[in-house]
C-alpha cells in the first residue's frame, strides 16, 4: 500500500478549489488511480437530503436554515480529525460553499445550521467564512466528508487554498453526498 498522500498542486485559492471540485474524489486530479482506490470509503447521509435528490431550498440562498444536517459512518481507525467541504460542480466551473475542519473524529454528525464544538470554518470561494448558501438551481452540490490523519490546525477564516491543501495532504478516507439541483 502506498504511503504517499494526495496533494493539491495549485498555489492560488481558486485554482485549488477548481482542482478539488473537478476531480472525482475531491483530491488532486493528478493523483494516480491506484492511490484513489486505496482511500477507504466513508458513508455520508442526511435526514434532509437524499443522495442524488434535490437540495431543499431551505439550504439555498432562498432559505434561512443554513447548512443541512449531515451524518457519516465508517471513519477508519487512526483518524485524528474530520473535515467537510461543500462545493458545486458544473460544466461551467464550480464554487466552494463551505469548509469545516478539525472536527473531533468521534463526532459522526453535523447539526442543521451549525458546526460541532471545537470545529473551525475556513474561507469559501467568495472569501466569506461559514456556510455560503448556493444559488445555482441546476448545479450539483456535493458535501464531502474527509477523514484526516492529523488536524488541519489553521485559524478560522484561513484561506481556501491553504485549507484545501492541508485537507488533501492529510486525507486517509472520504465519502460524499450529492444533491442534483436545488428544489
UniProtKB/TrEMBL annotation:
UniProt-recorded Gene Ontology molecular function terms: protein kinase inhibitor activity
InterPro entries per UniProt: PEBP (IPR008914), PEBP-like_sf (IPR036610), YbhB_YbcL/LppC-like (IPR005247)
Pfam family, one: PBP
Record keyword Disulfide bond present: no
Region (Disordered): 29-69
Protein's UniProt keywords contain Ligase: no
Residues annotated as signal peptide: 1-28
Keywords recorded for this protein, A-Z: Protein kinase inhibitor, Signal
Coiled-coil parts of chain: none
NCBIfam families: YbhB/YbcL family Raf kinase inhibitor-like protein
Family listed: Belongs to the UPF0098 family.
Name this protein carries in UniProt: YbhB/YbcL family Raf kinase inhibitor-like protein
Organism of provenance: Streptosporangium amethystogenes subsp. fukuiense
